[in-house]
# Entry
Amino acid sequence: MTLLSVKNLRVSFDTEAGLVEAVRGVSFSLGRERLGIVGESGSGKTMTGRSVLRLIRPPGRIEAEEMRFDGIDLMRASEKEMRALRGTRIAMVMQDPKYSLNPVMRVGAQLMEGLRQRDGMGKAEARAKAIAALAAVQIRDPERVMEAYPHELSGGMGQRVMIAMMLIPDPDLLIADEPTSALDVTVQAEVLSILDGLVRDRGMGLIFISHDLRLVARFCDRVLVMFKGRVVEELAAKDLMQAKHPYTQGLLNCLPRIGGPREPLPGLDRTAEWAN
# Structure
């Protein structure tokens, strides 16, 4: 079953230097699976994810032949309808929790805010649900974390709090933008295990945005490779290391290898034709 369908998505910005196209004709579909989007910084990965939630603001502009979520036309939906979808049925975990969590509010207050204002829950019920959400992302002492401020948490703990916050409404689609980029490998593995369990147990769709090709190959089901706002290759994640497109091969060749030769890593020779 297709949960999200995107056809010919384009994101552009009017600037003093002229029109800048950040996303140029991206098309993909997503079921209840793990879809990875990889590419260099500036390739359009994050803009693609934010476009699904219609979070591009002027001077940015979103255009698409179709962008449909579970039968809902996202391009024609009103702002009121989009607000009803954001955070409830479609959630997004931003890249760095330091910039997503309010530094002057306790974690518990931030987790409970949506439940109380949006869902009209009482304080006790909202607190119980927030504590359960923290426990679900394997935070060992959720009561203590509820009373903490964001600066009192480690990077991995902050990322888990963000995931818990996005999962409280039980969304159908989660967009995770570099959710493990600031974490060490041990915490990274734990966060991936949490996301994997949520997709498997809740039947959720996941868009996993990353620059780490090995991580995506190991974790996702399918992969889109983006270059200069376009998808240059789409393939099964298990086949990523045998990719055919020269850009994807170039990215793979830039990865260091344990036991490999001790010499400078090759640079990526970008070809203009890849973006056409």
About this structure: The chain has a mean pLDDT of 87. The chain has ten helices and eleven strands.
